[in-house]
What we know:
This protein is an alpha/beta fold. The protein folds into two domains: 1-73 and 149-215, Rossmann fold, CATH 3.40.50; 88-147, no CATH class. The chain is built from eight helices and twelve strands. The strands form three sheets. The protein has a six-stranded mixed β-sheet, with helices on both faces. It has a four-stranded antiparallel β-sheet with strand order 2-1-4-5, with helices on one face. A two-stranded antiparallel ribbon has the order 11-12. β7 (151-155), α5 (163-180) and β8 form a beta-alpha-beta unit. The longest helix is centred in the last third of the chain and has 18 residues, at 163-180. 35% of the residues are buried. Residues 234-249 have low confidence and may be disordered.
Amino acid sequence: MLKVNHVYKSFGEFELNDIHFQVNDGEYFVILGPTGTGKTIILESIAGMYNIDKGDIYIDDLNITNVLPENRNIGLVYQSYLLFPHLSVRDNIAFGLKARKTKKQDINLVLDEITKMLNIKHLLNRKTNNLSGGERQRVAFARAIVTNPKILLLDEVSSALDPNTKREFQINLKKIHKKLHTTTIHVTHDFNEALYLADRIAIINKGRICEIGTPEDIFNHPKTDFAAKFIYGNNLKYGDEDNEQRQIL
């Protein structure tokens, strides 16, 4: 279980404001909102890349707020993938295992399983700068999960892919999560992606989470004007003159 407990973080004029949510063990949790609302900052705060100004972060009731990033057992995949161009696909994926001084035999066993799962075994000896966007994305994902992280953080991981590749990757994400049950937090601005992948969705706006619910609840019964406008565009109708009664068309 992950708990983000009333977290604040200021960056000049922008602030994460009282971020509070819990992600259950094995859950696929999506943070959904437009660009510039603090989604990536939440992930990086969980990963330990920032010292938060106020609040606490827990994994399984252990307070990790001041734990170094390398000791949190968290995997993070960015939109830009951040692969090592001078290393082969094999060495990119195995990087974390080698850093943990895992035996070569064990590394080979894990690599075989992960690369088969993601259909990239045939790429192991290639350099990453010779891969397509979809292939680089799968390699980055393999590198993140090969160490069996307690929490997996995904930052707009499919936004740079073409529609067909994006859909294929979303299907793979769902299959892999069903198999591994890794607790996952995925940030995106794509509601269709959130609807397909999420067990629950948190809607964020201007550094503040405005509601959390299942995809069905968020889609059918949004509780805030912002959530309704973000999901349905401008299909928000005010039912009477004093705006007390509201209805989603």
